[in-house]
Amino acid sequence: MIRIIAILVGLGFAVVALVSFGVGAYTAATDDAPDTHLPYKHPQDVNYSFDGPFGTWDYGQLQRGYKVYKEVCSACHSLKFVAFRNLGELGYTEAQVKAEAATWTVPGIDPNTGEASTRPGEPTDYFPKPYPNNVAAAAANNNAIPPDLSLMTKAREDGTNYVASLLVGYQPPSEELLEEHPEAAPGPGLYHNVYFPNMNLAMAPPLTSNGQVTYDDGTEATIGQMATDVAAFLTWTAEPTLVKRKQTGWPVLVFLLFATILAWFSKTQIWSAVKPKKTKA
Amino acid sequence: MSFPWAKQYEPSNGLTKFLDEKLPVPRLVYNAVGAGYPVPRNLNYMWNFGVLAGFFLVLQIVTGVVLAMHYAANASVAFATTEHIMRDINWGWLMRYAHANGASFFFVVVYIHIFRGFYYSSYKAPREMIWLLGVTIFLLMMATAFMGYVLPWGQMSFWGAKVITGLFSAIPLVGEPIQVWLLGGFAPDNAALNRFFSLHFLLPFVIMGVVIMHIWALHIPGSSNPTGVEVKSESDTVPFHPYYTAKDGFGLGIILLIFFTFVFFLPNVLGHPDNYIEANPLSTPAHIVPEWYFYPFYAILRAFTFDFILPAKLWGVLAMFSAILLWFFLPWLDKSPVRSGHYRPLFRKFFWFGLIPCMALLFYLGGAPAEEPYVMLSQIATAYYFIHFLVIIPIVSQIEKPEPLPYSITEAVLGSDKKAVLGENTQPAV
Amino acid sequence: MADTAATTAATTDTQVETATGEFRRRDFINVAAISAAGVGGAVVLLPLISQMAPSKDVLAESTTEIDVSAIEPGQAIKAVFRKQPLFVRRLTPEEIAKADAVPIGDLRDAETLAERTKEGHTDLLVTMGVCTHLGCVPLGAAEGENKGEYGGYFCPCHGSHYDTAGRIRKGPAPTNLLVPDYEFSTDTTILVG
């Protein structure tokens, strides 16, 4: 009895699924739905020092990227999960971190009146937000809220490369693209970018000229260089423990391999008493 | 129950004698996973996954309790405390990555464990209760994993909570009130997050309880084995310890090597980038999918797109829940006198060329975008899924002519069994 | 292991052979495997224990700047330093004299007032507001609070009396109120930490 019911239920679900299939197939065959996928590009692969299982930070690059963030991105984008003290991990000394923190203005309280005021940053402070709240951020940016950058490279597929590519991907839409996808033309207040999934975004090109940032280490600040440097910096902000994680992984895996080999020998030896021998005696 | 030849626990010193008299925990362990539990000698590596599932349950509880020490279940700080764990807590990143990937590995080993059960028909008498408890564990795991994924309060957490509780809104009449009741509001917020955290902390211990019953029920008939032939005599078994403790130790080493490769070198590949964006009730991610271990059932949910008598939404929800609940009935759907797929030629063909490709396809399609040809493929795979379990299995088990079984496990391992040679019992009992 | 290789149909039926024969190598491998598991388990304890230690943000040293110009002699203020109360007290000349009059040998924790203040600012006593007995906040900083038998601070939890220099005089506390690291950033402000 139970099997008869089961067969009926099974056929029931199967029939309904296949009806859905039939309807879908018919629609697909008769309807000439336009392709709504825009041909945006996948990010270019750049080699970074922290790539791969043995990757390490390139402090020079991180410090350059920090400077790009400070002088360009921080005007609109917050970095709320990072504190100035964390800059110590980029190879700055304690005194440098303190001095660097003091160059930022953070919200504070007037000690006598308790009213909101500002003060120079301390190492324990977090990076200040450029806008007091989302409404202010939207109002100042044509209704598009600039996202926080702390986790940006983890929040996008292939994030480090995506950030670097996006920063250099601004260009006017090509003729062929507009012919095929007229909707890919940038609307008012939008900028065309071949790496952005819907090809137009509200952020104006932030890196506009070579030498926009003056690097302390003498590296030539081309747009491409600044883009990769800030992408590297944002990889660090997204996961400051990335290198430590990889460096912890190796001893763990080596030890486990050793322990597993021992376990294999132990298991073989224990089982040798009851396993029929197929090979030479 | 145990086999009459099972070794008896002998307390050796004053302390163990005292314990054995007052609270015989050592005896319990000895009889459960020690030398006092005789196990078929022919178990292959597919039988490692039960112990491995137990290991991952413990790993999840340990890392989960640690994370709960630092996490705060409040919508305004949940995302920030998760980042606090990643950045400032000593080894917090390791704990969180181990917990997140631990969930995936728990599901990997449990899926293998379940499909081992399908192939060797481990659900058959006298082991129906073990199977029922096992399916219950799987359902509890799914609930726990879902609620755990909500806790970081990223975009996928938020929209996952919204979409999954939305499943209940498909129920006619009472659906909408049920969804509101589940969430404690009209959209996921503090109320939902707090209750999910509470239940996410509670359910693993419920799972632990059901696991204990699962193992208890297992010890009544004893473990099944790849031939499906029941244990007949002492030569068919070896004591669990040291034979299977050693084998499971080796298996654990292998799985840990893979697990830690993920934790240390690929910690985010099984997750989704959108969950590193803080929850935003005003914007849905472009491509919303659950965690990979829900993909097959998510694919079944999305396969129903046409209002056929009932609304498509209700069909999808019914089919998704039925897809798992039908496992409860397997012991009574499969009437074949033979257990192991090794000796069932037709069943074996449907398993390898029907069920496995169907599941692989559903796993793939559940993560694919909701567009053609993926939807059409998932409709075919869904139809096969139901036909396999509810039509093919009952019919095949009736019409199939099984291949000859070995007389005993001993014969299967060694090529001959003295008892069989003596002609004590020429009819293979199953 | 050639001896056990003869595990044939004839012999296995009687009894599964356990490792009883050879000793050295088998035991060594098993002991090594179990030891490796033990070492692994012990190493796992390391992160499990250290995760409960203060996290990086808690350990990050913070400093507190306090304007002391408004504190009149005989008054004290309570500030917050690293999530704990900090007492800043302007001593009156009588209080200074009282503190200096105590024979150093009578003290449980021998320190002079000069040692507990900064040069040129002996009238400004900066101490943690944390009783050295079990961590309660002593009374005496706010106006009208019980200052104890020695006119300094009094801890109501277990009855520790501190004198005008914040030194323990009576009761269970073992040491004087702690003077944190601080410096005068200007003549009227101090930077603690």
Topology at a glance:
The complex is a heterotrimer of chains A (281), B (430) and C (193).
Chain A: H1 2-30, H2 59-71, H3 94-102, E1 105-109, E2 116-120, H4 134-140, H5 159-168, H6 175-180, E3 191-192, E4 200-201, H7 223-238, H8 242-271
Antiparallel strand pairs in A: 1-2, 3-4
Helix pairs in contact in A: 2-7, 5-7
Chain B: H1 14-22, H2 25-33, E1 38-40, H3 49-68, H4 78-87, H5 92-119, H6 128-150, H7 155-168, H8 175-183, H9 190-218, E2 237-239, H10 240-265, H11 295-303, H12 312-325, H13 330-333, H14 345-366, H15 374-399, H16 409-414, H17 418-421
Antiparallel strand pairs in B: 1-2
Chain C: H1 9-12, H2 24-50, H3 56-59, E1 64-67, E2 76-81, E3 84-90, H4 93-101, E4 124-128, E5 151-155, E6 160-163, E7 168-170, E8 182-184, E9 189-192
Antiparallel strand pairs in C: 1-9, 2-3, 3-4, 5-6, 6-7, 8-9
Q: How many alpha or pi helices of chain A?
A: 8
Strand tally of chain A is 4
Radius of gyration computed on alpha carbons of chain C: 32 Å
Helix/strand class of chain C? alpha+beta
Strand portion of chain C? 15-25%
Gap from first CA to last CA of chain C: 70 Å
- Gyration radius from CA atoms of chain A, angstroms: 28 Å
CATH architecture of the domain at 42-82 and 148-249 in chain A: Orthogonal Bundle
What is the arithmetic mean of pLDDT of chain C? 84
Largest beta sheet of chain C: what is the strand line-up?
A: 1-9-8
What amount of the residues of chain A lies in strands?
under 5%
- The residue-averaged pLDDT of chain A reads 91
The total tally of domains of chain C equals: 2
Q: Judging by the overall fold, what is the CATH architecture of the largest domain in chain C? A: 3-layer Sandwich
Q: What is the CATH third-level topology name of the largest domain in chain C?
A: Rieske Iron-sulfur Protein
Percent of residues in helices of chain C comes to: 10-25%
Runs of chain A in which pLDDT lies below 50 for 5 or more consecutive residues are none
**CATH class membership of the domain at 42-82 and 148-249 in chain A:** Mainly Alpha
CATH fold call of the domain at 42-82 and 148-249 in chain A? Cytochrome Bc1 Complex, Chain D, domain 2
Question: What would you call the shape of chain C?
Answer: elongated
